[in-house]
Structure formats: structure tokens, C-alpha cells
Amino acid sequence: MNSRSFVFVLLQRVDAAPGGESVFTRPLLDALRDVGELFQKRGMQKYDTVFLAPSLPTDDLRRQKRIDWGRVEQELRKDEWWGGPNRRGFRVNQERLLPKIRTLIGAKADECVVTVSGALITPPIGWSYALWDRVDELNAIVSLGPMNPRYWGLESEDRMSDVRVVKQRARAALSAVVGRQLGLEACSNVRCFLFEPVMDLVQLDRMRELGKEHGLSMPDDAHYESLDSDVSAAPDGDVGEEL
């Protein structure tokens, strides 16, 4: 098992609510903190969180590290980061984008950078979407777009129910990525964060704990508090609201 420092990068549109703060911002910060605390007991040296966003509208969010948005926006508008359109919009070419993000945030050579974004990422050939991509041992991206029930045309009357769904799925996906980046092996326990392959959201929703088979878990802290959200997404739904 590797011992590494991590930087979580929240690359987020924040124009969905007055004042510039998205309804997803705080739940995603909570998810990042949950994942960091879980894995700090299991090989993660430390973790930091960096915002790549136009504004941080409230005092407690301003305490998070933020990179100059003008510089970021200028870079992200370049055509070279986009992998081309599909029927749900443009996809990010993560193999080109992630090295640039490392440069923008000034990541150290041995730091593992995990970017979290509502953007769609380029999936493997034959796949309609991807939830994350571990591009290499130091760079990964988690795509929140397909995790949103509204993306598939499914939504609850309670807006915050959709937010809880995204938060729970984001935690599971981040746990899968961080665990593998730390050198933990994939497994066949469908409830474990390290199960592979994860082909769809139905499987992601089953992943609720760090399985005992990895020899690291304690029964009292190897899982997250349930958010009581269980939503299945149809693979061919209509486009909904983006993050």
C-alpha cells in the first residue's frame, strides 16, 4: 500500500444559485472531507482541497484554497481540453486536461490530484458514459454529471433528495479512486468501494464500505453514514440539469 498526499480539486460551475454558490458545493465539500478522513487512517498522508470556481460567496468557503479564476477560465476555454460533442453535450478530454490542472494548482511532483467536476469525461470505447478515470497513478477525475438523477430525466420533488444522491455517489466514487491510487487491490465484494468493474450507477449505489477483505477495516469506521438515498438511473434517459 502506498503512502501519499492528495489534493482534491473541485472544478465546479457555481452559477446555479444567487451569489454564485451551487446547491452542490457544501455537500461535495462534506463528501471530500469524509473520504479524506476515512483514508487518512489507511495510508493517506494528508489532503488539501482546492477550488477552481468563479467565486466563493460565503466566509467559511473563502477559507478553502482558491486559484485565480481568470487564469483558470482562460485555460479551460481552449479547444484542446474538449473531446468532442455527443448527444448530451461536450465531453472533457481528461488525458489532456488533468496535466494542465496540476500546473494550475501548483501540485507537487509526488502529490496525487483528484479532480471532481460536473463535466462529462471521455469514456472507454463502447461505453456511453464514465463515472471516473484514473488516468495514471497521480491523476484522476470523477465525473458528477451522470450521478445526478436529473441528468437521466429522473428527479425528486424534494430538490435536496437529488443532492443527497449525488453526494452519496460522489463519496463512493471518490473512495474507489483514492483506494486504488493508494495501491489497494480491486475486489469482487459488491458492497466494497474497491469492487471492479463498475459498469453503471446501480453498482455504484451498492458500494457502501471498505471491505474487510482488504485487511484495513474496522467495523465502526470503514463506512459512511447512510444518506437514505437509493435512486437508479436509466442508461438512456434525457438530459437533465447539469452540476
Task: Please characterize this protein's 3D structure.
This protein has 243 residues and is an alpha/beta fold. It has a single domain (4-214), classed as 3-Layer(aba) Sandwich (Collagenase (Catalytic Domain)), CATH 3.40.390.10. It contains 6 helices and 9 strands; from the N terminus they run E-H-E-H-E-H-E-E-H-E-E-E-E-H-H. The chain has helices at 25-40, 59-62, 69-76, 94-105, 159-181, 201-206; strands at residues 4-11, 44-52, 65-66, 82-86, 89-92, 112-117, 120-121, 132-136, 139-143. It has a 6-stranded mixed sheet with strand order 3-2-1-6-9-8, sandwiched between helices. It has a 3-stranded mixed sheet with strand order 4-5-7, with no helix packed on it. A hairpin with a 2-residue loop joins strand 8 and strand 9. The longest helix has 23 residues, at 159-181. The chain is globular and about 45 Å long. The two termini are 34 Å apart. The model is unreliable at 14-20 and 228-243 (pLDDT under 50).
